[in-house]
Every structure is written in structure tokens, then in C-alpha cells.
Amino acid sequence: MKKHFLLLALCFAAVSQAFAYNTVTVQDSISTNTHWTCNNQYLLKGYVYVTAGATLTIDPGVIIKGDKNTKGALIVERNAKLMAMGTAAAPIVFTSNQPAGNRTYGDWGGVILCGNAPTNWNGNNAQVEGGPRSHYGGNDPHDNSGTMSYVRIEFAGIAFSPNNEVNGLTFCGVGDGTTIDHIQVSYSGDDSYEWFGGTVNAKYLVAYRTWDDDFDTDNGFQGKVQFGMILRDPYAADQSGSKGFESDSYQSGTDTVTLTKPVFSNITAVGPLVAPTSTAYDPQFVSGAHIRRGSAISILNSVIAGWPCGILLDEAAAQYSTTTGNIGTDELQIRNNIIAGIANPSWTPGKEIVYVKDGARSLTSTAANADTTGGTPVPRFSPYAGPWTFLLDPAFKNKIYPTEQTGVRLGSPFDLGNPNFVPTSTSPIVYNAAHVFNPNNPINTDTSNNYANYNVPTVAPDFTNSKASDAFFTKVNFVGAFSGTGTTSDNWTSGWGNFDPLNTNYDYVCPVGVTNVKNYVEFASVHPNPASQSAVVEYNTINSGNVQVTVLDIAGKVVANVFNGTQTPGEHYLNVDLSSLNAGVYFVAVKTGNTVSTLKLSVIK
Questions:
Q1: Which DSSP letter does residue 531 get?
Q2: Distance (Å, rounded) from C-alpha 462 to C-alpha 468?
Q3: Is the separation of the CB atoms in 321 and 381 below 8 Å?
Q4: pLDDT at 594 over 50
Q5: How far apart are CA 91 and CA 511, in angstroms?
Q6: Strands 334-335 and 298-300, how do they pair?
Q7: Would the pLDDT of 10 be above 70?
Q8: Three-state DSSP class for 230?
Q9: Would you say residue 4 has pLDDT above 60?
């Protein structure tokens, strides 16, 4: 009996320890360098501002909750930094302060980054939507707002009124000195991600069960995004019309010169339609992509499946310049994509691509090509041959399949609780019925010697055109977000992603294997990235000691010694001379007595 009592006491102690943690309430402003550690949880009350000159550093495994009553939000202002660097084993989590089972869309405000990169607002200065005091915009495309890596943002995003919204993660004039990768936004009450101008690049983004749009780009945003996953709840859509991509260049208060022209590559965007004949979805869903108001967004090497409409090209009213004109200048590209499982209309050609005139409004109709709000529609797609011809131009290598199941053949893309976007072995992403395709090997178009070296899937990507040839893009051999080599690394959401945040228990601190020990190097970054002749490596040390900074090639060989000496605590900036290096991928290593921070750097010439 004593043994049973001892075992019960030990179990009770373990449970008590798991639930015993300190909650630090954060409100108003963070005006000095601040470090959040995983032995605490943090509660955001109201708008919390990281002000100019301050850096907020968040350790792996930290849980930050947004207060529902005050709609807590974190706003990183111009000339401030957020260093939120989780790991695959210990992601940083921003979530609702409501208990498991009671969380919902828009419980709190979200995360907003503000920078000094260009926008198309008149005067290149604007105030953040949704009520924060903060402004954004400037003349530095390489501005650095910090790093976000392996971060989840859940139940954020509030639509106060039309065009007055806070999203899950908002980028306002953020520069390409900022590092963004491995982010999941779930159950956002507005858009998952919205970019207002800026040049920031990103990789590995997940938008899960968004209410409004997944990737919304505005105000001259000209960054690049590679590897993104979109999954929609069929019964969750916004009255403004929900889309996977929504993109605008111009509106009242902007110029009509600076295009919104981001490049998205390797996105898999799965909409609400399990089958093209399905009616079991919210009628406020509009399209996989809505390109309007003079936008020149490019969508390459991607999969758009299960939407009421695939690509909606919306010719802007005269005051917003021209959307379809950007096709004629080759600024707007839709190439090397799969579009599948789109709703079957009563008219042909199908809704894989639709053109409307002056239709940039809530719930833009896709009932017919050249739908218009008034007046006489221009000749369809004039002076171009037509949207259908544009989409299926052989040079653009887009592919249409009637259904996802018989065409794209992903693992289980419509399973909301356990989605699997990895291609099956017979998917055209990783299979070629005419010739053997090995997804472990690079693409090879050599047809000599009876196709002895030929290695091309049915639908192949292209990274040779001007939009996707630079060093930012990883030159993979597949379209969509995931490869199909059969290895565990195919699903890059494994380990850190969460597709049941509604019921997740967050009453703990410091996940297994994470200790509350400060590293010698608190954070490090390199910018601009890609760079040509020179770059700046920035890092923060918290103790005095020896620091070595080197540049290594892809094989790990040291090709440049940047610094070797003793430094005092604080922020440090070092210039890295790249003039003697060839174009390619390198690594900048910041080494101390007990840590090494390794930064990937792309060199272009």
C-alpha cells in the first residue's frame, strides 16, 4: 500500500510541475532589449509595441498567448527587431489564452512587423491597418526586422471592418534583410498572411483553415515566397469573398507606377471542393487566386486544387491601371502549374481561368467571362486571345485535371485533421508514364540515346525564367510544396506543425529537450540575402569572449575569414566582402566558445 501511495505522490508531483509555471503579463511598450525564455509563458494584453531601437528575442519552445478580452497583439515597429527562432522540436507558439476546446477565430490580434522598405503609398508612409499607432514604409529594400523561424500563430486575426483588419501575420514595408521561414498560421479570423509593400522573402509557410484569404499581397509588395501550403475548411469563408491568393497593386492613396509583383513558387493551395460537383461549401468562396487592381503577381510551379474558380483575372477600373496589361509585359506570369478539381460551370470553357471587367469588389462574380459592374464589357481579354488560351499556351506548361483524386493524386489533401499533401507514387508531380522518373535525381531533358538520361515528371517545374532563376529559389525537381521521394523529409511540416490547435494542451513550459540556457550568440542574421559584392552579418553576444566569423562553401570549406578576436557583449555588425566569390550558395558561420550560428547566404553576380 505504501508503494502505491508513493507512486501516486510522484505522479501528482510530476503533473503539478507540468502545470506550474509563471505567466508574465506584457502590455504597452517594450522599449529595451528583452529576452523571453521558456520557463515562463507570456500574455499579450492590448497592443504591445516593440519600439525603435529595441530587440525582442524569444527562445525555442516559448508559448505566448493573446488576451481575448483586450485583443492582444504584438507590433514590431520600424527600426525594432523580433528574433523569434524556434526549432522543429521546439517551435515558438503564439496562441489564444482560451482553454482547449474553446478557442476560435479572432481570439486575439496577431503579429505585425513594420519596416522601412518601399511601398506604393503616396509619400511612402502609411499607418498600419486595424488600429495600431505604428507607421511603415521607407527607402531601404534591405531593411531588417529580425527573424521568425519555426513559429506557429493560432486563432489570431480580427476584421474590425472592411479594409480595417489585423491578420495572423502582417508584413508592413518589411525588407529582405528579414528572415522568415517555417511559419504556420491557423484559424486566422482574417487573412493568414498579408504583405503591405516591402521586399521580404519567405519559405515554408502554412495557412490552415483561414477565414478570409491565405496569401494577400498589396501596395507594391515585391518579395519572393517558395514552399507554401494552403488548406481550407469548406464551411469557413468571409463575406468579402475568400481566396487562396488575393493581390492588388493600387487603391486610393497609392501611386499607379509601383507594381505589386511578388513571385510565389511551389505552393499547394487546396480549397473547399472535394469534388468539382460538390455543393457542400460556403458560397462565399471565390477562387484559388484573385488577381486585380493592376497586380502583377506571378504564380509558378504550384498546385491549385478544389476551388469554385481557379485563376480569376480581374481587369481593373481605369484609375487602377491595368491587370491584364501586365500579362502583355510579361510581369504577370502563370506558368508550370497544375490546376485541378475546379467547379464545373454551365458554360465552357471551364472555370480554371476566368476574366472579369471592373470586378474588384466583394464576392466578385465568376458567373461568366467579362462580367462587369456596368457599361459595356470590353471584348473578352482584348487585346489578348483569351484567358483560356493564355492559361494553356504550350510555352507556359500549365496542366489541367478534372479532379484532384484522378489528377494530382496527393496523399490526403482534404483531411482537415491529418492532411497529407505529399504526392503519391502515381502523381504527375513525381511520375511519368512514358519514361521512368526518379524523384531523387535532378531533372534532365536529354532525349539522346533513347532517353537514357531523361528524367522529367509529367508536370515539371521551371526555374530558368526571369522570375524564378535567382539564388533565392531552391531549384527542386517538383511542382507544389512537397516532393515525393518517399523519405520522411518530404513533409516539412512534420514535428513542428499542428493541425489540431483547437484541442492542444498549452499548460506547460520548456518542451522536452529544451532548457532555459542562454546561448553565447543570442541571434545572428546576414543581409542583404541574396547579395552580390558585399553583405553585413549582424549578431548579438551576451558575454565577452572570442568570436570567429567565416564564410564556407557548400562543401564546408572555409573560403573567407571575416573576423577572429575578442568582443564585448552587445550587437555587432561586420562587412563581408563577396567580390572574389563566384555565384552560388554559401554559409556564414558565427562561432563562439560553445555555439555556432550558421547562416545561409546566396551570392549572385
A1: B
A2: 8
A3: no
A4: yes
A5: 9
A6: parallel
A7: no
A8: strand
A9: no
Report whether 128 contacts 134 (CB < 8 A).
yes
Q: Could you read off the pLDDT of 73-95 as tens digits, one per residue?
A: 999 999 999 999 999 999 999 99
Contact of 128 with 135, CB cutoff 8 Å = yes
Q: Determine which helix (DSSP H) or strand (DSSP E) holds 527, and give its type and residue range.
A: strand 521-527
Residue of 520, 519, 522, 532 whose CA lies nearest to 601: 532
SS3 450: helix
Q: Is 13 helix (H, G, I), strand (E, B) or coil?
A: helix
Alpha-carbon gap, residue 345 to 539, rounded angstroms? 56
d(CA 41, CA 61): 10
Q: How far apart are CA 90 and CA 286, in angstroms?
A: 36
Q: Give the residue-averaged pLDDT of 519-543.
A: 80
Q: Cα(48)–Cα(64) distance, rounded to whole angstroms?
A: 12
Residue 335 banded pLDDT, cuts 50, 70, 90: very high
Tens digits of residue pLDDT in 48-61: 999 999 999 999 99
- The cell for 165 is 483588419
| Cα separation values, 291 from 132, 213, 224, 294, 541, Å | 28, 12, 17, 8, 45
Which pLDDT value is given to residue 13?
35
Residue written as cell 554559409? 587
**What is the rounded CA–CA span in Å between residue 294 and residue 315?**
7
The DSSP element (H or E) to which 328 belongs, if any, is helix 325-328
Pairing of strands 285-292, 110-114: unpaired
The pLDDT assigned to 8 comes to 35
- The span from the CA of 180 to the CA of 307, in Å, is 28
Phi-psi region of 451 (alpha: psi -120 to 50; beta: other; left: phi over 0): left
- Return d(Cα 228, Cα 576) in angstroms, integer: 31
Average pLDDT over residues 234-245: 96
pTM of the entire predicted model: 0.86
* Matching residue, cell 558585399: 534
Q: Grid coordinates 484609375 are at which residue?
A: 319
Give percent helix, percent strand, percent coil of the chain, each to the nearest 5. Answer: 10, 35, 55
**pLDDT, averaged across the chain:** 90
Closest CA to 516 of 63, 4, 36, 2: 36
Q: How many CA atoms lie within 13 A of 210 on its CB side?
A: 30
Q: What pLDDT sits at residue 516?
A: 57
In this structure, are residues 209 and 236 in contact, taking their beta carbons and an 8 Å threshold?
A: yes
Cα gap 465→442, rounded to integer Å: 18
Contact 502, 100 (CB under 8 A): yes
Cell of 151: 513559429
CA atoms within 13 A on the CB side of 39: 5
**pLDDT at residue 545, rounded to an integer:** 80
Cβ atoms within 10 Å, residue 338 = 25
**For 419-423, 517-521, 531-535, which range has the lowest pLDDT when averaged over its residues?**
517-521
Retrieve residue 132's grid coordinates.
495600431
- The CA R_g of the chain, rounded to the nearest whole Å, is 24
pLDDT at 6 over 60: no
